[in-house]
Each structure stands twice: as C-alpha cells, then as structure tokens.
Please model this.
Amino acid sequence: MQFQGSELRLARVFNGYSLDEVGERVEKTRQYLHKCETGQTTPSDELIVNLANTLRVRPEFFFVGTRCVTSEDQFHFRKLFTTKAMVKQVAMARGEMFGRLAAHLDSALKLPRVFIPDFGLARTADEIERAADSCRREWALGMGPIADMNRLAEHIGVLVTSFQSLSKEVDALSVATSRPIIVRNEAKESVCRQRFDIGHELGHLVLHAGVATGDRQTESQANRFASALLIPQSMMLKLFPKPRNGRLDWQALSEFKLTWKASKAAILYRARQLGLLTEDQYRTGAITLRRTGEAQGEREDFKIPYEGPELLMTSFEVLSKRKNVTSDMIAAALNVLPSFLEELAGVKASRSERPSLRLV
Model:
C-alpha cells in the first residue's frame, strides 16, 4: 500500500504540531516532512514508526488512503472571522477524526436517526421564526421550554462533544456530515449560554446546508433561529414580563429566565427583537447587567442544572457491555493509540473489558 502524505498532515495538525516541531522529534527538516506530506517523497520504514509514535497513531494510519469524511464547507465555525487560521486547522482535523469515529460507531450500533429538516431558503426574520416553529413541531417539542438542549440534539441524531484543549479558542462549531456533529465550548460556565450555542449550531445545520458560514449574515440567522427555538415568538408575546411604568421587572425576568433556561441578556435582546422593549429599555437593561457584574455570568445561573452530552458515552458503554468492545479496540479500528482516542472523544483508555468513560 502507498504512504498517504495527507494522513501524515492530518495526524500532525490534530496534535497541533508545526512541521518544525515534528521535525525536531524525528530529526528531520521541515522541508523533508513537507515533501512527505505532499507526496513528493516516501519516508523510510524507520521514520514511519517514529512519526507514528510522535503523533500517537499506528503506522497503518498512514496507509489507509484518502478517506476524509469531511470537507471545509461542511464546517460551521462560530465567529469564523475571529478564528485564528491554525486553530481552525486543528479544529478541522479533530472534526475529521471525530467524523471517522462517528462513522465507526454507526457501523457498530444503531444510533438515533438523523432528522434535520432543511429550510435552506429561510433568510428573513419571519422565515427563520417559522422554521424554528416547524422544527419544534417536527421534533415534538410543543411550545413550552426545552428541558435539555443536548438531549434534543442527540435525539435528532447529532453527536455532541467538546474539544477541551480548543475551548478557549473556538466558540462553538458544527460539522454537517451524514452524522452531524456539534462541538460545545466547555470554557463557558453558563448553562444558558451552552444551550444557546446548541441552538445556534442547530440553526446552521437546519438553515445552511451547503452554505459557507461564519460571516455576520449567517451568524445572525443562526442566532435568530436559536432565539426562536428556545423561546417561540408566540410564547414571548404572551408571557414575557412587560416593563412596569416603563421600568424592567427584574424579579419577573429572573423567574422567566429560570422557566425557559435562557440568559437574561438573551431574553432582553429577543424582547427588543420582537418589539416588546424599546431601544432605550433594552439599553438600560444591558447596562444594568454590566453594572451588576452579570455580563459574563448571571446570578441565577447556578440554579439551572448542567446539561451535558450523553450519546457518545452511552455508545461506548453499550459496545463494552453487549459486544465486549473496549476503547482500545475502537482506537485500533481507527489506527490510533488510546491516548489519541482519549483526547478526541474524552474516552479514558483502560485496557480492561469495560472501558472507563468520561466526557471532557
């Protein structure tokens, strides 16, 4: 079989290494390694082993052929215009590897059916509001508060995860593969903001199939979808606590937040969006949140239970219990070392019949 330079680059970028950094570890120049990655030369067997050890993969990893399950236009980066190029590349490499893991799990298990309605022509505010309402109907959510946004995403076939080492660099992202992926930002402590991020990425998957995203227009559309999905327009018009004598009712806002599990900042923004607050009232509310130190974290946040991914961990547990498939065996199927898989999926390598599992 022929050495695949693209797989070498994939493993290098996944690990966040530059050509120079890998070169130092295997005692080769960056120029030589660049030739290996671009197919201009083939490394020796000894170098292949050294590269595999350095990049935490099996030597076979470099010989599987071009099998990428993702392409750049399938990635929806939140705030792409502020994402550093190298960070984007690392995130894409991890997205590619996670896509391969998802494909492997799909071949071994019966995961939930992917059910992402396509509203690709929804562009105006009214169209996006209708798209969100339609999704609520299609997903049998009714019009009340959504109990758990992670479970919703996983129920409709999305694998939710996080790339912990990138959480401070990448706000959130999704990958529109046959088994869609949403990557959360674990650096955010607010459950409300995590919920909004899931809604935002679902917005990309619903509205932007085949569309390049990351610009202000597509980000605004995904934000509108998230707002409408979390709190439908009809419920806002009916239940939003209107100002008393022109002044915001903060106690009622706090109760509204705890019911719908959306941040007060997001609720105020949506109220202005729907004409329930004037521009001055909204500005006053935003200033008050900043003045009281709630711009980053709101005082009620601790009252809202944590929502985390479950499908990935459950998949590994089911494979272990019912098929005696360990995490090490899954790593071997992907031609990577257990530590590579642990960083990719948060699955603790264990070498026991039942893997020790955690999500990072």
Summary: The radius of gyration is 23 Å. The beta strands are 75-77, 159-162, 173-175, 181-184, 347-348, 356-357.
